[in-house]
């Protein structure tokens, strides 16, 4: 059925029965207006009767006063009613649309939007509703994507474990140490994925417990560099630590384990995309609001079209990046962002084409 309201044709996919809502509001309004009409009509009629009694000695004047009072008793409520009806339509129509749209959202249609017109408060209500619907739609899409991504990431190790176990039971494979180690590696990958998802879920919900303490930044960066020295040597990549000049030790109030996890995720990402002979730099410097940490590499960098998505869950870039040896699940940068935000800080990235990538943390 076509919607007679031309406003909705600017919002494809939304055809709510908002006229029913307007009729509901109109009935309530008419009931209130009728009460006001009868009240004022009674008051004016009573005044007319009072003036009639006051002019008993002049019947002609009394009749004119009574007729004038009765005329006002009818004319004023009608005039007020016509003005009120115009005001009612200006408010009730947008309000009825919002009510109908809210019902549509409650029924699962998150594509609904309302025209953002009307008086000031009503217009702000429409804008607020549209922002809410947009955020709900985005969150719902993220939930769907997450479910699909988790299923995809879990499928591969589960199939490998299942196939090898079935092969051992059928006598196709021998239960050699190599096969057992292969199965153990796959179970570890599953455990890491589950733990990453748990950490990400707690951080996003604001329920991640942080054990804050005063940390020496130089020591933190040095420990991270040492932890990845073997991997860097194997990849023929050098890791350098640079700490800016500061009066006294450069310190930050943070959870040592979680901050080390952030730096570890950034270092893993840098090692994965830095060519042999390249360099990764861990640096720190004081800023007015705290401390700035940076992890920089001189690799090929990130394509500009990918930059807006690198902190999304399960994002791994183009097919070539996903085929790289040791490619992760795509949760590392998403976890890094959530952990930094849990500390009340922010993380950003810069990657000029062909000039490497720099991740910046401000705590």
The succession of helices and strands, N to C, reads HHHHEHHEEHEEHHEE
Tally of extended strands? 7
**Which structural class matches the secondary elements?**
alpha+beta
- Going by CATH, the architecture of the largest domain would be 2-Layer Sandwich
Mean pLDDT: 76
> Could you list the spans in which at least 5 consecutive residues all have pLDDT below 50?
1-15, 319-326
Share of helical residues: 55-70%
The percent range for strand residues is: 5-15%
How large is the radius of gyration?
35 Å
- Per CATH, the class of the largest domain reads Alpha Beta
According to CATH, the fold-level topology of the largest domain is: Heat Shock Protein 90
Main sheet record: 5 strands, mixed
Distance, first to last CA: 56 Å
Task: Enumerate how many helices there are, as a single number.
Answer: 9
Description:
The protein has 363 residues and is of the alpha+beta class. It folds into three domains: 6-115, no CATH class; 137-204, Signal transduction histidine kinase, dimerisation/phosphotransfer (DHp) domain (Helix Hairpins); 212-362, Heat Shock Protein 90, CATH 3.30.565. The chain is 59% helix and 12% strand. It contains nine helices and seven strands, in the order H-H-H-H-E-H-H-E-E-H-E-E-H-H-E-E. The chain has helices spanning 18-54, 59-106, 120-170, 177-204, 217-227, 229-234, 256-273, 319-322, 332-342, and strands at 212-216, 238-243, 251-255, 279-287, 290-297, 346-350, 357-362. The chain has a five-stranded mixed sheet with strand order 2-4-5-7-6. Strands 1-3 form a two-stranded antiparallel ribbon. It is elongated.
């Amino acid at each position: 059925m076509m919607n007679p309201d031309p406003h909705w044709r600017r919002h494809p996919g939304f055809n709510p029965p908002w006229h029913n809502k307007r009729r509901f509001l109109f009935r309530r309004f008419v009931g209130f207006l009728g009460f006001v009409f009868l009240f004022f009509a009674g008051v004016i009629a009573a005044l007319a009767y009072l003036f009639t009694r006051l002019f008993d000695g002049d019947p002609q004047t009394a009749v004119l006063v009574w007729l004038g009072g009765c005329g006002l008793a009818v004319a004023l409520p009608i005039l007020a009613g016509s003005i009120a009806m115009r005001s009612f339509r200006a408010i009730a129509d947008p309000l009825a649309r919002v009510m109908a749209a809210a019902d549509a959202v409650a029924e699962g249609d998150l594509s609904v939007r309302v025209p953002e017109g009307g008086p000031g408060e009503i217009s702000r209500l429409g804008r607020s509703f549209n922002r809410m619907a947009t955020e709900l739609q985005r969150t719902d899409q993220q939930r769907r994507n997450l479910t699909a991504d988790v299923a995809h990431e879990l499928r591969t190790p589960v199939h490998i474990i299942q196939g090898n176990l079935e092969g051992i039971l059928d006598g196709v494979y021998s239960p050699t140490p190599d096969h057992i180690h292969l199965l153990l590696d796959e179970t570890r990958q599953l455990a890491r994925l589950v733990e990453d998802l748990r950490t990400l879920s707690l951080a996003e919900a604001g329920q991640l417990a942080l054990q804050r303490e005063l940390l020496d930044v130089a020591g933190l960066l040095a420990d991270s560099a040492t932890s990845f020295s073997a991997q860097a040597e194997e990849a023929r990549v050098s890791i350098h630590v640079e700490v800016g000049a500061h009066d006294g030790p450069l310190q930050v109030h943070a959870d040592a384990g979680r901050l080390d996890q952030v730096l570890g995720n950034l270092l893993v990402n840098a090692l994965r995309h830095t060519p042999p002979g390249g360099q990764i730099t861990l640096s720190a410097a004081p800023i007015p609001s705290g401390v700035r940490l940076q992890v920089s590499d001189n690799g090929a960098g990130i394509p500009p079209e990918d930059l807006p998505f690198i902190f999304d869950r399960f994002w791994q870039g183009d097919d070539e990046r996903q085929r790289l040896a040791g490619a992760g699940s795509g949760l590392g940068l998403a976890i890094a962002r959530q952990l930094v935000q849990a500390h009340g800080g922010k993380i950003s990235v810069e990657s000029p084409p062909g000039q490497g990538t720099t991740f910046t943390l401000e705590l």
